[in-house]
Structures are given as structure tokens and as C-alpha cells.
Design a protein that fits this description.
- This protein has 332 residues and is mainly β.
- The two termini are 36 Å apart.
- The protein has one domain (2-329): Neuraminidase (6 Propeller), CATH 2.120.10.
- The strands form 5 sheets. Strands 1, 17, 18, 19, 20 and 21 form a 6-stranded antiparallel β-sheet that branches.
- Strand 18 and strand 19 form a beta hairpin.
- It has 5 helices and 24 strands.
Amino acid sequence: MKLLIQKYVIYIALTAIYIALTAILVIAVGCDDSSSPTSSPPVSRIQSIPATAVKMSPSSDSIPPILYSDEFQDPIPLGDGINTAGAEDSPFILPDGNTMYFFFTPDGNIPVEKQLFDSVTGIWSSTKVNGEWTEAQRIVLQNNGELSLDGAECIVGDQMWFASARQGNRRNIDIWIAKFKNGKWADWKNAGELLNVQYEVGELHVTLDGSEMYFHTQRAGGKGDYDIWITRLVDGKWQTPENVSEVNTIDMDGWPCISPDGQELWLTRPYMGTSAIYRAKKVNGKWSEPELILSQFAGEPTLDSHGNLYFVHHFFKDNKMIEADIYVAYRK
């Protein structure tokens, strides 16, 4: 039972764009404009969700997230502008706490090749107005008539780093960069061979000043499965990655997030058979041993400048994922 749950945790936590990548690329090469998402009538997120989908809530959750820290209030799901009966994942909150980016797919259990053509799977964003999250809007990061699956976003200033499965990649999934210009994201480009091939960068977080990139990877020299590494930007070039040995274990350590003040390193790793969120603090220039903050299908933390903790929670029943929502644990 425990091993089966771990299998599902690993499968889900990698997010939908990390599934069946070979199938994605084969379909992308063979498709034409008539089958592309941009050739179909626009579909809203709600319209795209299967009629049989079940919207979960804390009251119907048999395996709710467990909070271990008295620094935070009990976690609660965000509003309807963000959460649906589909799967919301990979959250990223801007420092002011008023803009949320996240990955959405209407059904996390369908084959990824169907997500490729559904016109809605990808990165979305919502803004907070008068304390309420507005209806999320799709972030388009591909040319009209071309296919891609994008997610695992990180925004620093006017630059977005994101993972993408698309034609022209150096790997099945590469890191890409886009610029915010004239009110929209544009000028996307591959982050290059240094990061994608030589450094094997996976899901990442760039510090607020843009000088350091923390990322997870299975590159050689780590302690076990996924490890967290750091590369620093010096004279415009990302330097050879260093293993952040203080926080890594022989288990899967990944999905790093650095708090806006640079004093906390947050990560996801297994605990008691499901994904959990840990935090390390910077003490005399070194990271402390990570402490458990949240468990039970909680992962991919992101923080605003007030220290509020946002994360994804996956709802499971009978070893099957029902849906996923974005939660927040407000700092006391």
C-alpha cells in the first residue's frame, strides 16, 4: 500500500508535462493546423472539465494536509477563480501576493496526448482584487498553429522561466524563457544548451535579484534520486552547479523555492508515503537541516513577501487522484 501511494505521489508531483514525453513529440511532428488547439473554438476551463469530475473540499478530503508549524494558520484552498474540479498544480505567487501563476489541466488522469490538443492545458494566472481571486486567464507561450505543453513556471521581474515540451528542444523537456512586453508574455526562447544539456536543469527557482538559480535534477554527483543544486550568475554566465548538500537526502528532494528575502529554502520530499513540504533556514550563510512543515499530498511550495505559504494539494481516494487544488497557509 505504501509503495503504491509513493508511486502515485512521484507520478503526480512531476506534473502532467513530464508524462509520456515521447508520445507528445511524435504527435507534434505529425500534426497539422487543422488539429492544433488554436484552430478550435476557445474553450473555458470550466467547459473543459469532464461532467463526471468531482469537486473536492476540505470537508470531503479523507487525507487532508497536516500542518506541523505554529508559525502558520491552518491551510485553506484558494477561491473559485483559481481552483476547479480539474487539476491546478505548480503554483507560483508573485512577491506582493496579488498574482498567482499555476498549471492547469481539466483531468490529471487523461493521457498527455489529449492534453496537448485540449486548448486549455498549460499555464494560467489570476489576480487578487478586493481580496478575491479573479477568473484565471490562459498564458499563451507558443505561436499560432504550433503545439507545446508548458508549466513549472518561475517569474522574476519581467522574465518567466518555464518548462516546455515542444519541437526544437534539446531534451524532451527544456527550460524556456519569456519576456513580459506590452501587457503580455512574448519573445519566448530556449534557455540554451548550457542549462538544458550540460547542467540538466529541472524545475527551478531564481532568486528575486536574479543572481542564483536553485533547481532539482538527477545529474551525477548527487546524494540519491532528485537533488537540489544551485548555479550562480557571474558576468552574464551561469556557473557550474553545486550540490546543496545540507538539504539533500538519498530520497527525492526537489521543487525548490527561495523566500523573497532569501532566508528560507523550501522543498518537497516524501514523508510517510506521500509528498511533504520542508523548510531550511539560512544560518551564518549555510542552510540548516530542513524541518517538516506540511505533509499528506502537499508539495511545490511558493511564498509571497509576507511569508504566506502557497502549495498544491492532491486529493486521493482508493489510491487514485481525484483532483488537485492550490492551498494557502497564512503566516500568523
